[in-house]
Write a structure and sequence with these properties.
The structure is a homodimer. In chain A, helix 8 runs parallel beside helix 9 (about 200-215). The radius of gyration of chain A is 26 Å and the shape is elongated. The first copy, chain A, has a six-stranded parallel β-sheet, with helices on both faces. A six-stranded mixed β-sheet of chain A has the order 7-6-8-9-10-12, with helices on both faces. Chain A has about 350 residues and is α/β, with parallel strands linked by helices. Chain A has twelve helices and twelve strands. Chain A has three domains: about 1-60, lambda repressor-like DNA-binding domains (434 Repressor (Amino-terminal Domain)); about 70-170 and about 305-335, Response regulator (Rossmann fold); about 170-305, Rossmann fold, CATH 3.40.50.2300. The interface between A and B is large, with 69 and 69 residues. The structure holds a DNA duplex (30 and 30 nucleotides).
Chain lengths: ~350, ~350
DNA sequence: GCAGCAGGTTGGAACGTTACAGGTTTTTCG
DNA sequence: CGAAAAACCTGTAACGTTCCAACCTGCTGC
């Protein structure tokens, strides 16, 4: 009985171009020409081949194709943390724009660990990817540069390195923008907070912008906090001494600039748990403008990155490199940032 | 001068196994054996080959390898929407577990569109992926089944189809669990709300669980809302007539069960905008327990899926299929759900 | 009637690997 | 010491494509 055949098991080998050729009574070259839509095939033959393809359910083997062509259409994408909404959004955009240009994206999650970043890149290179898009870069610059330079085009998208093409927002400007907003509101003690796993060149640039803004306003000294928020929000270890001191101790900071929205939202969460009111007791500015930041309940003031534009430009850049349309030394493309004002910022408490 | 060389441009062809062979003075077979760590190579030779590899920076070409081996170690992953935190988390877990078993994940974002789902799968098949993991499945079951069956192992992870292996939570049970929680709290008018783009078999099962719970409590009739929340949270079109009517009209619903957390949180956002208090005026239960749900400001009561466990099981299942360790007809693995109670649920308003 | 040509078609050589059936050594052992 | 066994190494044939030079056919035009 048919029921005994266990159809889910049988895995038959896919037909090759040769199968199609013999079925259609032509040579493999002709089939290849038809598949690739090249001219120089009579309509009659073309039709014959097409039906043969249809009948057999032939699907070209990209691996074989790319082996002989000496180039793949795979784009490696190195992403810091897919679970971080900013990266998730970027990954999605990148995938879409890559697909639109005929590339297939291959993602590599690194957890901000330069070890697995290197391992991921190694894997991508074994697949002979056409190019690599970094959505996050730990900054192990020398090692990475050595393994990548001359190998494959690279673009740093919304992150930075001192080599390779860069497409990102002006982080320094963004840092200044967010910080000035707080200064203008009257804050004098403003902390800068970042997540160790995500501390990279971008972070440094934002920090620099922050420092510049402070300096311009003659505020000293900058306050830098490196904080790993507990992964399980539900369990913010109520008493995070360092944070408590900065935000409730004597001479406390009345505002914080988060190097990204996740940091900012985590801080907000911390504030909520220790009953610091935002923005009455503590103003918070983030960076990225992840979708969540716009929820009424979060209402995070933040420096927005035009994600889709970045992704589009990034893919365009690397595609042009791959296709040799873009030559010459590494290029840096900066796109504008904008401040989105929401409810997490306000004037400092009276007398501070 | 060196500065004129434009180093970013020169792309030299990577060395092949033959280059290594001649450099080390052995045959390519031996190099291959060394690379793959096979026995039967003397220590001296092994060392010689190793240094040659080192010197040349040789990296095996996976494409060529997989061409001759007739199988790849690429795992296709079809995901509904990378920007949805649930999928993002799952994608991350899947990638990790796949990597741990030696597979490389290739993602395909579908936007819940069965058209691009099919296109994505087509691409994956052209790459001769070893298997396909569906993290979302539109339900175009017949077409997909025809193109996939016999071709490649498939697992539906946290989603459903009537063929292929399934690893998911017991959605019906989850639906009942969430709904009962509301019934127990005293609610009698409970709406079920889902997002059209994500309506699949899982959604149907959850709906079924919801209906069962109502029936058991002798509550009639079920209320189903299909709602596309505006993508830009900031602009919830204040007057979404359908929602307004259901939740503020005569005989209004006092509670809602969201078929997933994104739906639930969007509804909460809607409630916030129209000044419905949660949970005093409206109780909300979600499904998934995305990280965001645990934020103090969101505090969403929700049916939790053990994401990492699901991913692990899913990858195990498909890996066993691929490696022929698992034979026989499609298997369904269900894992438990649990209710996480937070602040979005409470008793209904007096008199309702 | 035949050179020239264009359109259509083809076979073989790559691409970089692995699999495997041999071939050499070297070692073991009676 | 010689033969069998073990250990090591190699050459060749795949894998499924694309690329390209060569090969057919008719047909055109003189």
């Amino acid at each position: 009985m048919a029921a005994h055949q266990d159809p889910a098991q049988r895995v038959r080998r896919p037909p090759t171009i040769l199968d199609v050729a013999s079925q259609a009574g032509v040579s493999k070259s002709t089939v290849s020409n038809v598949v690739r839509g090249l001219p120089g095939v009579s309509d009659a033959t073309r039709r014959r081949v097409r039906t043969a393809i249809e009948q057999l359910g032939y699907r070209p083997n990209v691996l074989a194709r790319q082996l002989v062509q000496q180039r793949t259409s795979i784009l490696g994408v190195v992403v810091g943390d897919l679970a971080n909404p900013f990266f998730a959004e970027m990954a999605k955009s990148v995938e879409r724009h890559a697909a639109a240009r005929g590339y297939t994206a291959m993602f590599c999650n690194t957890e901000g660990d330069s070890q697995s970043e290197l391992a991921g890149v190694e894997t991508l290179l074994e697949y002979r990817v056409a190019g690599i898009v970094f959505l996050a870069f730990s900054g192990e610059s020398r090692t990475m540069q050595e393994t990548l330079e001359h190998q494959v085009p690279v673009v740093f998208l919304s992150c930075k390195a001192d080599w390779g093409d860069v497409v990102s927002v002006d982080d320094v400007r963004g840092g200044r923008l967010g910080t000035s907003h707080l200064i203008t509101a009257g804050h004098r003690r403003i902390a800068y907070i970042s997540i160790p796993e995500l501390e990279d060149q971008s972070d440094i640039a934002r920090w620099q912008g922050y420092c510049e803004a402070l300096e311009q306003a003659r505020i000293e000294p900058p306050i830098r906090i490196s904080w790993s928020p507990p992964s399980d929000h539900a369990l913010v270890s109520g008493v995070d001494r360092k944070l408590l001191e900065v935000f409730t101790g004597p001479d406390r900071a009345t505002a914080a600039f988060g190097s990204n929205d996740v940091a900012a939202i985590s801080l907000q969460e911390f504030a909520d748990r220790v009953k610091l009111r935002v923005p009455q007791d503590l103003s918070i500015v983030g960076f990225d403008d992840v979708p969540m930041a716009g929820l009424a309940r979060i209402g995070l003031t933040t420096v927005a990155q035009p994600r889709d534009e970045l992704a589009k430009l990034g893919i365009a850049t690397i595609a042009d490199r791959i296709e040799r349309k873009l030559k010459g030394p590494p290029r840096t493309t900066l796109v504008g940032v904008s401040l989105v004002t929401r409810q997490s910022t306000g004037p400092p408490p009276e007398g501070l």
